[in-house]
């Protein structure tokens, strides 16, 4: 979406008038990223890059928090270059070079802190071609330079025409450029059906089908390929949203699992190297590496209105009280550990699905249940 200023104004005020949290969007002028603290001249056009659809607030709030305080700095905090991003929680403007360096440093720190990777491991990245996995691919390619490990990509085509095709094409191209082996699997070949076909059968909540069936392929293929870990592009926003959703839906035990079995040798552990980085920064990093965000391109089946509302509210809160998402994610980490430790002893023996052999907690896994009911 492009907007032209009718008078000289700060981008942050423009966003406020539109009811859009600055935390939710990237801004570009003439194809170059600019921080929301920058100003725009009369008649100049700014493009608002929605990295996911963001419904504007129905009634914009009073500007407060950093909206009022943040001043544009013409220089990066570390050099004389023009800044392209503003980090409100650190009150810093950064140029592309220093932003990328910070980003990669933080990915390495998370990998170390959570003990995600060891030298020589065989890691597969779940590469959808969206901004998160695209950014993760580039960051892991950098990490590999100092911590050698084997990296390949697993791409899953759920069969959503017009949405996934283009992203998969981009992912393929980028893997070729980076010299990373890519394995592509389709719902049609693995499950005999696609998300579109399931939708045509009148099933609701396609995201549940999509997530369960995708994870099923990911785990079985990772095992077949002999991978020791699967890297997922979940960012800080995803973690904070999931924490809030678990509370809102009264599903406290989900804190323990994160949609994963607690312990099962058939389960290939997942790692989330972007878990401490905000979605906006992940989007900016992907953009700086040439990821094309196709504005308005949302999955036609995206229906989780509650997740979207939570996402929007968290963006507004982060705008007003920078650091909110990190604090929620930290609480989530603490609670996850407590719940995990408390259920470990009581948890039943790890099971395998009697239909497909995949790890599960019942006799039949959720994927097989879903497929048998179609
Ligand atoms: Fe699948 Fe839902 Fe994501 Fe679409 S929005 S790709 S249906 S999980
Ligand atoms: Zn099964």
Question: Tags for this entry?
Answer:
binds iron/sulfur cluster, 43% helix, 374 residues, 15% strand, alpha/beta
Short description:
With 374 residues, the chain is α/β, with parallel strands linked by helices.
Overview of the molecule:
The protein has 374 residues and is an alpha/beta fold. Helices cover 43% and strands 15% of the residues. It has helices at 11-18, 66-69, 96-113, 131-146, 164-178, 187-191, 195-200, 206-224, 236-248, 254-257, 279-288, 305-320, 324-344, 366-372; strands at 2-4, 9-10, 25-29, 32-34, 39-40, 45-50, 85-87, 92-94, 122-126, 150-157, 181-186, 229-231, 270-271, 351-352, 359-360. It has a 5-stranded parallel β-sheet with strand order 11-10-9-12-13, sandwiched between helices. Strands 1-6-3-4 form a 4-stranded antiparallel β-sheet. It is globular and about 65 Å long. The two termini are 39 Å apart. Iron/sulfur cluster is lined by residues 158, 160, 195, 206-207, 210-211, 299, 301-302.
Topology, element by element:
Elements: E1 2-4, E2 9-10, H1 11-18, E3 25-29, E4 32-34, E5 39-40, E6 45-50, H2 66-69, E7 85-87, E8 92-94, H3 96-113, E9 122-126, H4 131-146, E10 150-157, H5 164-178, E11 181-186, H6 187-191, H7 195-200, H8 206-224, E12 229-231, H9 236-248, H10 254-257, E13 270-271, H11 279-288, H12 305-320, H13 324-344, E14 351-352, E15 359-360, H14 366-372
Parallel strand pairs: 9-10, 9-12, 10-11, 12-13
Antiparallel strand pairs: 1-6, 2-5, 3-4, 3-6, 7-8, 14-15
Zinc ion (ZN) binds next to helix 14.
């Amino acid at each position: 979406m492009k907007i032209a200023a009718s008078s000289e104004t700060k981008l942050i005020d423009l966003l406020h008038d539109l009811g859009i949290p600055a935390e939710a969007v990237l801004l570009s002028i003439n194809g170059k990223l600019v921080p929301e603290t920058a100003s725009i001249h009369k008649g100049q056009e700014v493009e608002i890059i929605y990295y996911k659809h963001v419904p504007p607030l129905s009634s914009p709030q009073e500007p407060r928090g950093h909206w009022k305080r943040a001043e544009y700095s013409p220089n990066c905090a570390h050099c004389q270059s023009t800044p392209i991003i503003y980090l409100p929680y650190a009150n810093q403007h950064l140029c592309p070079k220093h932003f990328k360096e910070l980003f990669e440093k933080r990915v390495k720190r998370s990998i170390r802190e959570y003990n995600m990777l060891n030298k020589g491991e065989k890691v597969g990245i779940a590469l959808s071609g969206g901004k998160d996995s695209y950014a993760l691919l580039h960051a892991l390619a950098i990490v590999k330079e100092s911590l050698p490990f084997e990296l390949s990509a697993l791409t899953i085509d759920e069969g959503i025409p017009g949405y996934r095709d283009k992203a998969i094409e981009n992912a393929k191209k980028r893997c070729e450029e980076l010299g990373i082996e890519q394995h592509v699997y389709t719902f049609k070949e693995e499950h005999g059906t696609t998300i579109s076909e399931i939708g045509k059968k009148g099933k609701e909540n396609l995201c549940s089908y999509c997530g369960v069936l995708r994870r099923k392929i990911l785990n079985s293929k990772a095992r077949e390929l002999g991978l020791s870990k699967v890297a997922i592009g979940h960012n800080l926003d995803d973690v904070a949203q999931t924490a809030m959703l678990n509370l809102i839906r009264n599903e406290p035990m989900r804190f323990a699992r994160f949609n994963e079995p607690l312990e099962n040798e058939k389960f290939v552990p997942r790692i989330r190297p972007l878990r401490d980085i905000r979605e906006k920064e992940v989007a900016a990093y992907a953009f700086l590496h040439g990821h094309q965000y196709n504005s308005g391109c949302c999955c036609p089946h995206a229906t989780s209105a509650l997740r979207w509302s939570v996402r929007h509210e968290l963006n507004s809160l982060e705008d007003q009280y920078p650091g909110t998402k990190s604090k929620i994610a930290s609480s989530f980490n603490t609670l996850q550990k407590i719940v995990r430790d408390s259920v470990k002893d009581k948890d039943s023996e790890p099971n395998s699905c009697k239909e497909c052999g995949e790890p599960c907690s019942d006799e039949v896994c959720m994927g097989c249940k879903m497929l048998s009911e179609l």
